Structures are given as structure tokens and as C-alpha cells.
Amino acid sequence: MRIAICDDEDLFRFQIRDAIDKIYGSMDVIIDTFSDGRRLLERFDAKPYDVLFLDIEMPAMDGITLAKRLRDRSEDVFIVFLTSHVEYALEGYEVSALRYPTKPIKEEKLREVLSYVMKKNSGKRQLMIKSDGEELRINVADIVYFEAQNQHVMIHTLTDEHLVRANIGDFEEQLRNDGFFRIHRGYLISLLKVNKIVKNDVTMEGDIVLPISRSNVKALKEALYSIVEKEAF
Questions:
Q1: Tens of pLDDT along 74-129?
Q2: Chain centroid to CA 27
Q3: Which residues pair with residue 137 across a beta bridge?
Q4: Domains of the chain with CATH codes
């Protein structure tokens, strides 16, 4: 999850950043801070964020104006206004703001906001890749498996294939909490796309049969049982 905090007061920026760090620890959360909305707009154009914490009262560009420009760029980004004056919150309805916590924001309120965003984004997790010279977003839920090919990795989705220059181990690390399992030094699969296991082979959606390293068969079955239990719950 990518988070941006924009507030012209250093104290509040760092307080929120530190609180988010405390909540999520080493999880896959990137936090960028900005003191000027114009710089945030530039960064957003290069790589969008999932949730924005915006101060309403800022000198160069106020939070409402900034939010409108950001909303023009994305209908999906979650916007949270930070304000010392509750009356300003009414203006946030124009940009479908998620919350209007007062400053300084309390940790329990911050947890509520982030928990809500995480739940909403759980089915929309995406990977940003560079393939054939262009940057693409791939829905993690669409990925069937990764295949190592020398200095590259082929990403097989339900409908397409994307060749990227990367190490399959990097994807394994990045997706460790998203239901992916390394069945072989050359293959990383989505557990949710497994149809069956027969001896040392696994059949994926699309009737694709991949080899399982003998030492990984037991661990794969255990991982499958675990994810089935979570899905059932």
C-alpha cells in the first residue's frame, strides 16, 4: 500500500508517519511525506498512491483544491482530511473524502482508517511492472504463476503473459502475504489458482501442469490447507 502525507507542519507530518510505521511495522507499506501539494501532484502523476492524508489549511495550495486535482486524476484513491477546524470538513464531500479526523489524529482513528482501506484494497492488489518498455499494472488476483527464464521472469495471468527483467525471488518476497508459493526454483504459483496435485505435479487453472520439487510437496499441501481455511473463514 502506498501512502502520502501532505501537511505544511513538520510536527504533524512526522507524527502520522511514525504512527503508521508503528501500526504496520515491516509490512509492504510505503510512506512518502510532502510539505507542498504541488510536489505531491507531481509524484502522484508518476506513481499514484492508495491513500492520502491531506491537511486542509496549507499556504501554497489548500487541501480542498489539492484534493480536487487529485480526484481528477483518480476516482479510486482514498482521501483523508486532517483539520483543526471541523467546519472545513463539509467541503470534503465534493471530493468523496473518506474521513475528517481532527489534529492531532489519535492512533485508534488512524487504525480505523487504514484498516478500512486495507479491506477495500484486498481484492485490488496490483503489481507495477515494466514490460516492452512500458509500465503496466497487473491485478495480483489475475496472476496464475511466475516462471523464471534466465535473467527474466514470465508472468502468466488468466489472459496474458508479460516478460520482465527480474529475479523470481523478488516476486516471492513481495507476494509472501498474498497466497503465492515457490514450488520449484523456476516457478512461483498462486495457491488460489491450484486445481489439483498429483504426485510431483500441480495442475493450475487453464490445465497448466507444473513440476513440484520433491522437497516442496508436503509444504505446498500444508500451504493449500492453510489458505483454504482462511478463505472459508
A1: 888 888 888 765 555 555 555 666 667 777 788 888 888 887 777 676 556 788 88
A2: 10
A3: 128
A4: 2-121 (3.40.50.2300), 127-232 (2.40.50.1020)
Q: Which set of grid coordinates corresponds to residue 157?
A: 495471468
Most confident residue range from 25-34, 39-48, 222-231? 39-48
Enter the C-alpha cell of residue 134: 512500458
Q: Are strands 152-157 and 161-165 parallel, antiparallel or unpaired?
A: antiparallel
- Three-state SS for the chain is CEEEEECCCHHHHHHHHHHHHHHHCCCCCEEEEECCHHHHHHHHHHCCCCEEEEECCCCCCCHHHHHHHHHHHCCCCEEEEEECCHHHHHHHHHHCCCECCECCCCHHHHHHHHHHHHHHHCCCCEEEEEECCEEEEEEHHHEEEEEEECCEEEEEECCCEEEEECCHHHHHHHCCCCCEEEEECCEEEEHHHEEEEECCEEEECCCEEEECCHHHHHHHHHHHHHHHHHHHC
